[in-house]
Amino acid sequence: MKKVYSHPKSLKRRAFHYCPGCGHSIIHRLICEVIDELKIQEITVGVPPPGCSVFAHHYFDVDMIESAHGRGAAVATGLKRACPETIVFTYQGDGDLAAIGTTETIHASNRGENITAIFINNAVYGMTGGQMAPTTLTNMITTTTPYGRDPKLEGYPIRMSEIIALSKGTVYVERTAVNSPAHIQRTKKAICKAFQTQLDRLGYSLVEILSPCPTNWKMTPVESWRWIDQEMVKEFPLGVIKDITGAKNAD
Amino acid sequence: MTRELMTGNAAIGEAAIRAGCQFYSGYPITPQNELTEYMAKNLSRRKGCTFIQAESEISAINMVYGASVAGVRAMTSSSSPGISLKQEGISYLAACELPAVIVNMSRGGPGLGSISASQSDYFQSTRGGGHGDYRTIVLAPSSVQEMADYTHRAFELSDKYLIPVIILGDGMLGQMMEPVEFKHEIPKILPVRSRAMRGAKGRPSMVIKTFTSNPSELEELNWSLFRRYQLIKKEETTFETFMVDDARLIVVAFGIAARIARGAIKSARASGLKVGMMRPVTLWPFPSEKLQELVNQVKNFLVFEMNMGQMIEDVQLALGDKADISFYGRPGGVISTPSEILRVISRLYYQNGLDAGK
Hints:
The complex is a heterodimer of chains A (251) and B (358). Chain A is an alpha/beta fold. Chain A has one domain (24-243): 3-Layer(aba) Sandwich (Rossmann fold), CATH 3.40.50.970. Chain A is built from 9 helices and 9 strands. In chain A, strands 2-1-3-4-8-7-9 form a 7-stranded mixed beta sheet, sandwiched between helices. Chain B has helices at 8-18, 33-42, 57-69, 80-96, 122-126, 144-161, 171-175, 215-236, 255-270, 288-294, 311-319, 338-351; strands spanning 4-7, 21-26, 50-53, 73-78, 100-106, 137-139, 164-170, 177-180, 207-208, 239-242, 249-252, 275-280, 282-284, 300-305, 324-329. Chain B has a 7-stranded mixed beta sheet with strand order 3-2-4-5-7-6-13, with helices on both faces. A 5-stranded mixed beta sheet of chain B has the order 10-12-11-14-15, sandwiched between helices. Chain B is built from 12 helices and 15 strands. The longest helix of chain B has 22 residues, at 215-236. With 358 residues, chain B is of the alpha/beta class. The A-B interface holds A 41-45, 47, 50, 54, 57, 60-68, 71, 74-83, 85-87, 103-104, 106-107, 111 and B 22-23, 25, 50, 52, 54-56, 58-60, 62-72, 74, 88-89, 92, 96, 196-202, 205-211.
């Protein structure tokens, strides 16, 4: 009988600590599946951030280096330049990549650093308890926008992928989501393409993934999947934002 | 071996390349730009080497962190305000037990301060500097030749003890030119540490992390760092003494201040004052034991610093009430002259009656 589903080799056999309905565990698995399929487990180094995924090293069976908050792109730059044969990916949340690490991210992309960024956008700071993120939607209630995010006071949700796409060194940016089987499959293809971009030494690639945070959104997992479709994608439309890889589409 | 006329900044750059430094990232700030520029010119196109002008000092130190993880000798440099920004990264390097060399051509502060030479980063350099319980080795050269020599030593110590090493110079040392001789050739094969993380090939995957939800695990890390610090204190504490054998007054000074004090001491000796100097070379670990030995023969100490009195606290910790400790300092980037220090020495010498019974 043909085997259609198995535990990825580069994913450790350990129960995820993430909340029920959280997108991290799905995304971890997708990255590991891609690492296996590209046969790069032995040359891959991951750069996880502070936050809920600070324990990513419990799950990824590849070398992992914790980065200071927001500094992932700089750490990955140093590592990749010092050892270009490694495949380096950063795993960054919206606070990490779009607030405190904006500088590092923009400049790494602008230098065309040959690294892959996996950008988890769940519109809140998760581990610290649901504060406003740079990607928090207008009117959305968080612990630091208790009256709803008012653009006059708190600014607008930032579209980091569109900003990164403007850098000449960026070769591939796609925004996906993990709120349905179809979207999950699409996300895997995007992650695969982003890693392939690095293997082909083309430059900076980024996959932004809209990811549910039922705990801090105060929703059930099913409600949060729906909320991504109904609300989040209006601000953060899915699809390829930039692709100058010259390779065929991720489809 | 030929001697070359170079600035202190350039000498550090050349010495770093000869020490096998493979990675440099920096951000412009006066008075250390000649070092960044030297690396741009001489490291950036070298095979297997990387130079990056980073977008900030924070990025520069984090790039060094990434390069250090990959097992190569890596360096960054800045001056006081930029070093403040690097403290986050230095704390992570210390926590992860990663080698790196950080050069501080310090300038007057606080704030943006001045671009003139100052020693007001003593506290920041010797107390860890960033958050958490850690130390860095701090080397304080006082000539261009020492800047070259200590750069080599900094890389060696950093690799040996898996600890960030600070070279604490200042604007004068960085920008002045002196003849310098390089004692090492560029290595044919660039060094890569055995515990480099470059992917889990033929071994289990590894993790470099600082965060833990288990305080006792973190306590053990702190204890293990502390035990290494004790070993460094024992093995690597370095100092220089000058005319201390018959001295009745000992000047304690480091870096460029020690150079200025040396001139003053020579003049004092010429007029018959028995003055010597103890100059810490490692500011951390501080040569407390040497001071404790000297206090058996001398009771009068003058601490001279180009700040409002920072190293004096280490002198006081070492000597307690066993000695009469005076202080003279000029903060803000003002540079004392030898004749000014001579006046301070002479006044103290006679006020304390040290000329009695000569």
